[in-house]
């Protein structure tokens, strides 16, 4: 009787061991599938990072080769804008040169407003330049003002661009007429024409 009971217990224990082994195998298989999924996902996640690195490397090389910028400055600019081919930036540079901008002015523009390199040269920038020229802006005036405050070209509406351009032009002209060391320490009445011009000059300096 005891022998029969003992034999029955052994059968139960063996059955438990078999069930445990089967569960372990299934768990291992599931873990393998999970691991494959994890590593597969990680591989996919690396790709965009590699693309970003590739874009930054190309951007730095382009800025150094096309504009003669230092590697350090180009690396700083690449933190603000990146691109993986030269078609768009080439179009932007070509457009600026066709409107009389010198390489020195273009370098200054790109340094101050690097996002310009990813603007659509034909659909966005060209109409803005044409609009400003149609208002009577000479090439020398246009290149001078936009070189100082290139963010004007990042504005969206023609009216806003024109208004801001006129404001910058006025301030630059006023900037030539005053001795800043004297003016910054002089007492000017609030609302006076001279005071307003000086405040505009200071605003422009902050913007540009």
What would you note in describing this structure?
This protein starts with a helix and ends with a helix. The protein has helices at 2-67, 71-77, 87-98, 103-112, 121-134, 139-148, 158-177, 180-184, 193-207. It is globular. The longest helix is centred in the first third of the chain and has 66 residues, at 2-67. The chain has a domain at 86-207. The chain is mainly α. It comes from Noccaea caerulescens (Alpine penny-cress).
* Count of alpha and pi helical runs: 9
Q: Mean of residue pLDDT?
A: 74
Which blocks of ≥5 consecutive residues have pLDDT under 50? 4-8, 20-49, 180-192
The radius of gyration over CA amounts to 33 Å
| Helical content (DSSP H or I, runs of 4+) | over 70%
Run of helices and strands: HHHHHHHHH
Largest sheet: none
**How far apart, in Å, are the first and last alpha carbons?**
100 Å
What characteristic shape results from the CA principal axes? globular
Features of the shown structure:
globular, mainly alpha, single chain, 9 helices, 0% strand, 208 residues
Topology:
Blueprint: H1 2-67, H2 71-77, H3 87-98, H4 103-112, H5 121-134, H6 139-148, H7 158-177, H8 180-184, H9 193-207
Summarize the structure.
This protein is an all-alpha fold. Helix content is 76%, strand content 0%.
């Amino acid at each position: 009787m005891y022998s029969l009971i003992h034999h029955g217990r052994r059968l139960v224990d063996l059955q438990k061991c078999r069930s445990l082994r089967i569960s372990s195998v299934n768990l291992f298989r599931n873990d393998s599938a999970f691991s494959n999924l994890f590593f597969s996902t990680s591989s996919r996640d690396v790709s965009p990072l590699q693309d970003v690195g590739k874009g930054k490397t190309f951007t730095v090389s382009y800025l150094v080769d096309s504009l003669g910028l230092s590697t350090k400055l180009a690396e700083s600019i690449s933190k603000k804008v990146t691109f993986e081919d030269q078609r768009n930036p080439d179009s932007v540079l070509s457009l600026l040169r066709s409107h009389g901008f010198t390489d020195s002015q273009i370098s200054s523009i790109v340094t101050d407003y690097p996002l310009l390199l990813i603007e659509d040269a034909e659909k966005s920038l060209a109409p803005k330049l044409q609009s400003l020229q149609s208002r009577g802006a000479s090439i020398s005036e246009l290149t001078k003002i936009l070189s100082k405050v290139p963010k004007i070209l990042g504005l969206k509406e023609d009216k806003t661009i024109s208004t801001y351009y006129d404001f910058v032009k006025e301030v630059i002209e006023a900037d030539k007429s005053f001795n800043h060391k004297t003016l910054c320490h002089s007492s000017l009445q609030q609302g006076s024409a001279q005071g307003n011009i000086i405040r505009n000059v200071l605003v422009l300096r902050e913007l540009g």
